[in-house]
Amino acid sequence: MSAGEELAALERQVISCRRCPRLVAWREEVARVKRAAFAGQEYWGRPVPGFGDPAARLLIVGLAPAAHGGNRTGRIFTGDRSGDWLFAALYRAGLANQPHSVSRDDGLRLRDCYIAAAVRCAPPANRPTTTERDNCLPYLARELELLTGVTVIVALGAFAWDATLRVLGSPRPKPRFGHGAEARLDTVTLVGCYHPSQQNTFTGRLTIGMMDEVLGRAKTLSRSTR
């Protein structure tokens, strides 16, 4: 099978996953109760697979789907403020064909970029347990096996940074997360970026310029290293 077909097969595995009882119960409750603003919409309510360009050289790893974002729309970083920020930045960087992502069928296409998450189900209070993280990491590991062109991984936040290191095998001493931090790990370079959560973007901890700088650096690295 081609990489695209293998990724599609993995996507089906992710969507059918029920490994974590707490996350299954939470994601399905959120999909059933719904937020008032989305009361008329049908929620996805399942694990959210990665998506993007099978030939990507750049992989972006987030924490987990938002309860009323990816858990509603079925696409990671889609339908919430964090996603609004991220996809606008990807568009400015020339990695997406449009600056917004609102649904799985909105025409969004990523160029040379793939997006995944450390945990594929929306967790209560955005806090997965270490067991839930470890249950999910084989999916990220498999994506990395299939995305053979990836040379740079951008970790959005410390949780994604640590999860990625667990998949890749962390050297000693363990590289510390920081915005703009870089760690060379065999054939890939891991780059840190503050997560585009409202807590970070509303307070100015993460600015548009900071996000653009990290993505620009990651894009340059992805095209100059192998």
Question: Can you tell me about this structure?
Answer:
By secondary structure, the protein is an alpha/beta fold. The protein has one domain (3-222): 3-Layer(aba) Sandwich (Uracil-DNA Glycosylase, subunit E). It contains eight helices and six strands, in the order ααββααβαβαββαα. The protein has helices spanning 3-15, 21-33, 70-73, 81-92, 130-146, 158-168, 198-201, 208-222; strands at 51-52, 58-62, 113-117, 152-156, 182-185, 188-193. It has a six-stranded mixed sheet, with helices on both faces. Strand 5 and strand 6 (188-193) form a beta hairpin. Helix 4 crosses helix 8. The model has no long low-confidence stretch (mean pLDDT 96).
Helix/strand layout:
Layout: H1 3-15, H2 21-33, E1 51-52, E2 58-62, H3 70-73, H4 81-92, E3 113-117, H5 130-146, E4 152-156, H6 158-168, E5 182-185, E6 188-193, H7 198-201, H8 208-222
Short note summarizing the structure:
This protein is of the alpha/beta class and 226 residues long.
Secondary-structure element pattern, one letter each: HHEEHHEHEHEEHH
- The CATH class name reads Alpha Beta
- Multimeric state of these chains? single chain
The biggest beta sheet, please? 6 strands, mixed
The count of β-strands is 6
Radius of gyration: 16 Å
Reported by name, the CATH topology is: Uracil-DNA Glycosylase, subunit E
Structural class: alpha/beta
Strand content: 5-15%
Overall pLDDT level: 96
Specify the CATH architecture.
3-Layer(aba) Sandwich
Shape annotation: globular
List the strand order in the largest sheet: 1-3-2-4-6-5
Query: Helix segment count?
Result: 8
User: Could you name the CATH homologous superfamily?
Assistant: Uracil-DNA glycosylase-like domain
Low-pLDDT segments, ≥5 res: none
Q: What gap, in angstroms, lies between the N and C termini?
A: 24 Å
Number of domains: 1
Helical content, roughly? 25-40%
